[in-house]
Amino acid sequence: MIVIAAGAVLGGADRLCGNRLGYGDKFEEAFRLLGPMALSMAGMICLAPVLAGVLGRVIVPFYRGLGVDPAMFGGVLAIDMGGYQLAKELAADGRMGSYAGIVVSALFGCTLVFTIPVGMGMIPKEDRRFFARGIMLGVSAMPAGLFAGGILSGLSISECLHQNLPVFAAVLLLVPGLWKMPDKMVRGFCMLADGIQVLITAGLVLAAVEYLTGWNPLPGMAPIEEAMEVVASIGVVMLGSLPAAEFLRRVLEKPFAYLGRKMGMCPQCLTGMLIGLVSPMPVFSMYRDMDEKGKTAAGAFLVSGTSLLAAHMGFVLAAEPEMLPALTGGKICGAVAAVLLVSVFGGTFVEKPRFV
């Protein structure tokens, strides 16, 4: 928090000086992101209690039959798109609610409903096969992050293994699907993302109606004030984390160029990984400047590493600050394991994933 506060001072001071160093723009960007964050989060946060009640009738008995905490179902959504709230609402054990809502949602859920559909939409068509290859390797490495995050959450190794059975089953289906029929899989992810977007918008509209008129069209929803409080808390953290991440990127630019040469990766790839810790969006636009191995490595890294230093860190500091080590350890371990997999196996998947 002290480092993030120092970043806020750096960004604010540069803004007062006319943004001479570029940190002031990052400071302002935190506020510019408040609107998009609210649109992507607030509606689902409001709907989470209702969804938990509806899904609980089916999900809870099924998961309990497997001996798995129902909170793990919340991990199919991104941490900042309702995954945390849904996991906490469904949880039979508070520890599992925190683990599923923060660690699993930040790795598996974010990949499923955000990184894959958004990445495939933004990346040039000719580069999508390298991105798909990276996603496959990143998802294959994800268990390392799930285990690390679970241990740091206070779970035992056996608990991590058993509670993640539904996630591991989904991973076993996801990797072959992206390998054998990437077009159909990506279309499915895009449809899922569109469906979630409809649900989020509907929740936001219903919550706004309740706030403005006092009439509750869907009993059980969380008030919109609570959702906006979460968004505002994340925005405050990003006031400092975005300038701090920019400072870190500049400091590490030359070491990354040297490290890239040693690892056989282009400097743009390693720079993209660092930027991806803040937001994946600029990384997608950098794909044209990367070589093939770099494109694969960047995609693999984003599976676990995306948004750690911005939205995800801000969310956890606002919701459960004590879970920050679990989030950080899980995402870093998963991301590093993914890059190591690319270093070992990156050249073995050259032509298979194709997109029409």
Describe the structure.
- The chain has one domain (24-347).
- Helices cover 79% and strands 0% of the residues.
- The protein has 356 residues and is mainly alpha-helical.
- The radius of gyration is 20 Å and the shape is globular.
- The longest helix has 33 residues, at 34-66.
Strand content: under 5%
Q: What does the main sheet amount to?
A: none
- Indicate how many domains the architecture comprises: 1
Low-confidence stretches: 348-356
**Backbone structural class:** mainly alpha
Total DSSP E strands: 0
Portion of residues within helices: over 70%
Count, helices: 16
Oligomerization state? single chain
Q: From N to C, what is the helix and strand string? A: HHHHHHHHHHHHHHHH
Molecular shape: globular
Summarize this structure briefly.
Helices cover 79% and strands 0% of the residues. It is globular.
Q: What descriptive keywords fit this protein?
A:
356 residues; mainly alpha; 0% strand; disordered C terminus
SSE arrangement:
Blueprint: H1 2-16, H2 23-32, H3 34-66, H4 79-90, H5 94-122, H6 128-152, H7 157-163, H8 165-180, H9 182-213, H10 224-251, H11 253-263, H12 267-276, H13 281-285, H14 292-305, H15 308-319, H16 324-345
